[in-house]
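Chain and backbone:
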Amino acid sequence: MKKNVSASYRKALAALLSLVTLGYLLYHTLAGGTLLVANPYDSYSLQAQNWLNGHMDVENGASYPWLELAVFNAKYYISFPPVPTLISLPFVAIFGTAPANLLIMVYSLVSCTAVFQCIRRLSGSPSACCFWAVFFTFATNLAELSRTGGVWNQAQALNLALCFLALWCLLAGRNNLSLILLALAVGCRPFSVVYLVAAGLYLLWKGCRSFRSALFSLLPGILGVLAIAFAMMAYNAARFGSPLEFGHNYLPEFTESKYGQFHPSYLLPNLLQLFRLPTINQQLAFEFPMFNGFLFFLVNPIFAVWAVRLIRERKSPVFRQAVCFSIVPFLLILLALCAHKTMGGWQFGARYTLDMLPAVLAAFGLLRISSFRFWEYYLCAVGVVINIFGMVFMLLQEMS
């Protein structure tokens, strides 16, 4: 019986991943066969090349004006946290560059698999596992994001994959590995430190009856987190003289700005941009705001499901846990994102809000949500349609 049940999950996951892979192949065929083509915005391959040449800075950095390079002491540096470069490094060492478009596709498939396994851990049926896996990934901005492996997209997609894998590990009781994965996620998107702290507090809270033994059991994970943190901080200090500086503060965009990279004055305008609506012109064609985002739960309808589920579960005995470990991280990351000077620049949808999806999945884990209703199925379909449209729409914009 157990073998038959396991086989049904394996078949469902294999079918899902094969269909999604086919979708990516069709998209890249439409784009002109770009799956294995080097991406001009792949800063991580450039960083890996310079590492292999013994440089922490970017040689001839002025010759890459289209990349976001930090300028410090007359040298150019990649301004993004370095963990994605570790994955690009072996490809660069062997082939001279990394297949960025292929890598970001793989990151998205990993995210899909991780959500599938999370829902399975919550006793979801194979069909429910497939449903929520699609809803959290390809019915969100991740679909459009994952079509091309630019540096910004890689950072977000790998961060999401690591956070989802960490939640899977938490549900499976692999607590130390979960902490290490979240530490690596911080090396993709620094705001993921919120999830790392939340996971640590959650695990200590679960073991509060025997705090010392709980802390001791987490020692391998804590040591792993400290090692990763030390490595990244040492790298930052060696480049910029500060253990907390990845380089974004030295981008010309922010050094030339009145208020710099982060400032409270950015909060309200950026938040309002997340609620901008697309419009319909006289030809009944949609017109989408292309800079700094628009209605974030239109392209990520899972946030609407999350809000409704939380309201319905407000009398649940674990609702306070959901507030602490889902709502609070969600709001902290939202505020941090809105305090940033830009909300993602040129894009379809509101890509920064993907960083809040792990908070939503955490609520599903705490509230043991696995089944779905028709209205959720409908919203998932809306998300898939809009984001597939977004993939083609952005491709046409680039070709025009």
Notes: Residues 29 and 35 are 8 Å apart (CA to CA). Residues 2-30 form the longest helix (29 residues). The chain has a mean pLDDT of 95. The chain has 18 helices and four strands.
